[in-house]
Every structure is written in C-alpha cells, then in structure tokens.
TrEMBL record:
Protein's name according to its UniProt entry: Putative flippase GtrA
Superkingdom: Bacteria
Alphabetical UniProt keywords: Membrane, Transmembrane, Transmembrane helix
GtrA/DPMS transmembrane domain segment(s): 221-335
Transmembrane segments: 238-265, 286-304, 310-329
Biological process per Gene Ontology, one example term: polysaccharide biosynthetic process
Length: 347
C-alpha cells in the first residue's frame, strides 16, 4: 500500500507514526511538506532517512492541494496498490490505517472512510464541528455519514484521476470529495476507528471561521440552487396565473423555468467538474422526471385549487410537500445513481 501524509508544521508525532507503520508493514510512504518552512526541515529530513518520499510546497497551499500533489506523484509512479491518506498529528493509529488498507483491497470503486466514533473525552469544538457537518450533509444529500471530516481515507489506485479533478485547495476539498462521489460512480464505506485527540487537538491547523465557511460552501451552494429554483417556481406560478388565470399554463411555465435554472445552477456552480458524458446521461433522466412531476403536480394542484377551492398558494405548498419525498427519492435512485463510468482528468 501507499500511505499519503499531508503535513504542515509537524512535530515528533510524524516521525513516531512513520516508525510505527514500518513496524507493522513496509508501506510506501509519501509525505507532502505543505510549506512548513526552515524550522521543520529537520523533521522532514529524518522522514527521508527513514525511507519516505518527501514532496515540498514552497508556500502553504492547503490540505487539499497537498493531497492532490501527492496523488499526482503517485499516479506518475504507475503504482497499482491502494492509497491511504492519514494525518501527521498522531490521530490515526497504525492498526486503523492497516484496516482501511485491507478494506480498500476488498472494496473497489469505494471511498473507505475511517469513521471516528467520538466516544470518551472529545474536544468541544471537534464534537460540535463534526455533529454540525454530519447533520448538514445528511439534510443536503439524504445520505448519512457518521464522520464527514475524517482525514483517514482509502482509495483504489484507479481513482487517482478523479481525485485530482476535484476542486478545492484546503479543508473544503475533503467535503467536495464526498459530495461528488456518487455522480462519479463511487460508493462510501465507513470503517470504525479509534478516536484519538492529543492535547485537546491543539495541533490542528483548522481555522474555525475561514475553513468552516470553505467546508460548508459546497453544501450551501447545493442547497442554494434548490432554494432559488423553488422561489422561481413559486414566483412564476403566481405571475403566470395572475396574467392568464390558466392553471395548467401556470404550472407548466413555472416548472419549465425553475427546472432549467436548477439544472444549470447544479451543472455550473455545484457539480462543475462533470464531463459531457455525465451531462448526456443525467439530462434526459432529469427532464423525464420533471415531466412526470409536472403531471402529478398539475393533477394535485387542479384537485386542490379548482375542485376543492383551496387558495393557489396553499395548494402549491401542499402539492410540493406531497411530491418532495417522491421527487428526491427518484433523483437519488434513477437520475444521479452510481455508475462505474468515470472520466479521467489531469491533476
């Protein structure tokens, strides 16, 4: 296996981790010095003496960029074994790293996540951050992941092209990876690991405000596209109905406008790295679903507004509530379902 360790201003725990890995296995270890500076050269020199490959950024570029530098290097080597990413601060035990490596060998086309269980004494900021991100991720995607922020992740070698194509240079890169995995044809598998926090996690370089915004930005964009489309749908429905008093025309016109905006927003701002082949696969299914939902939407709206004489806005709210779960389930199951077709990309 290859162990990839992005590292910024490490301490002796990095050397300790290397010794422990060598004791349990003979992995190929690649370390990316993310602009740590002269004060840390001795640590990286020791890592080289222990047989590690050390790649260096002249300036700090962020964890995401460090990971992609490592992926690019491993890809050029032409190795065919799995790649395990681990942090340099002692949070990931060698036994857990080996368990992730074993899972990668058995689960092709999976991102294997070392899932911390957050038992015992966990720093408040770490517990709160992970809980918030987990709930927001589930609300946005409909998928439950226990540990969305884990740095212990495993990948099969054929995923390197895709990993290099994911946007993001800092901590948001790892969230983007989770958000884009399904559309790229990869599944997520969590393997429970030990939760290790040393010195209240003081060694973490996570910036609570700036990096939290960056991590949540992909989720906010994903949710924002849906909210904007919903607002357009409501606004166009009321406007067209006011001008024409024709319910069918209002429902169809509003849904056409909102669906075009939603699909375009997702393609351009949320899932910006999808290739043309992905568009060709998803677009017909997406608009076939739009047509089905449109038919159901009009039927319910007609029954509520025209037959039961319920005000238009209230009828719209009831209709959207009834169809929401069906629409969401259908999109996850048929429109953006997992596929093994992947488009290579350069780092």
């Amino acid at each position: 296996m290859t162990v990839l360790i992005p590292s910024y201003e490490p301490d002796a725990r990095l050397i300790g981790l290397i010794h422990q890995l060598i004791e349990v296995d003979t992995p190929h270890i690649v370390i990316v010095d993310d602009g740590s500076g002269d004060d840390y050269r001795s640590i990286f020199a020791t890592a080289k003496q222990l047989g590690c490959t050390v790649l260096t950024h002249e300036h700090n570029m962020g964890k995401g960029r460090a990971l992609k530098t490592g992926f690019q290097y491993i890809k050029k080597l032409g190795r065919r074994d799995g790649v395990i990413c681990a942090d340099s601060d002692g949070q990931h035990l060698p036994a857990d790293i080996m368990r992730i490596a074993d899972a990668v060998d058995k689960l092709p086309h999976h991102i294997v996540l070392g899932s911390r269980q957050f038992t015992g004494e966990v720093p408040l900021r770490s517990r709160f951050g992970n809980t918030a991100t987990r709930k927001i991720y589930k609300f946005t995607t409909g998928s439950a992941i226990h540990d969305t922020q884990t740095g212990l992740r495993g990948f099969s070698n054929d995923m390197l092209d895709w990993l290099c194509s994911i946007p993001g240079d800092r901590f948001e890169y790892e969230m983007n990876m989770l958000l884009k995995a399904r559309s790229a044809g990869y599944r997520l598998k969590e393997i429970p690991i030990e939760t290790v926090y040393l010195e209240e996690n003081k060694s973490s370089h996570f910036r609570p405000l700036a990096d939290s915004i960056a991590v949540y930005l992909p989720i906010l964009k994903f949710s924002g596209a849906s909210l904007l489309s919903a607002a357009i749908d409501y606004g166009m429905l009321l406007l067209i109905h006011l001008l024409t008093t024709n319910l069918l025309l209002a429902v169809v016109g509003a849904r056409v406008c909102s669906s075009l905006v939603n699909y375009t927003m997702n393609r351009r701002f949320v899932f910006t790295d999808e290739g043309q082949s992905q568009v060709r696969r998803s677009m017909p299914k997406y608009f076939a679903l739009v047509l089905l939902i449109l038919t159901l939407n009009y039927g319910l709206m007609y029954g509520l507004n025209e037959v039961a004489h319920i005000p238009l806005l209230i009828s719209k709210l009831i209709t959207e509530g009834v169809l929401f779960l069906f629409s969401y389930w259908t999109q996850r199951k048929f429109v953006y379902h997992e596929t093994t077709n992947k488009k290579p990309a350069d780092c």
